[in-house]
Amino acid sequence: QLQLVESGGGLVQPGGSLRLSCAAPGFTLGYYAIGWFRQAPGKEREGVSCISSGGGTSTYADSVKGRFTISRDNAKNTVYLQMNSLKPEDTAVYYCAAGRNTIQAMCTIPSLGAYWGQGTQVTVSS
Length: 126
Known about the structure:
single chain, seven-stranded mixed beta sheet, 44% strand
């Protein structure tokens, strides 16, 4: 069973940066599209950014365009989410998921993610 492990979350001031990592020890992430999702208290889980298996295409939620960058290093079996210019409304638990759907479908319908990590908390506050 593919298990994903997120890391890199924490507390940061508004305007700050964090880089999240998503790894899959013992598995080859390169076979899968990977998405980053987030869920704030009382809200539904939403797609933040997704990247194709080869890394050639990616998609972003409008709320993070220009501030977040998704990337992957298949040699290191890791996917990253660089988050800059963070805002209090970015506060949420961030999850990564792996799937075999198109990145557009995956980021629109989180339930298409076949494998999920446990999440990492990101808190943006002064």
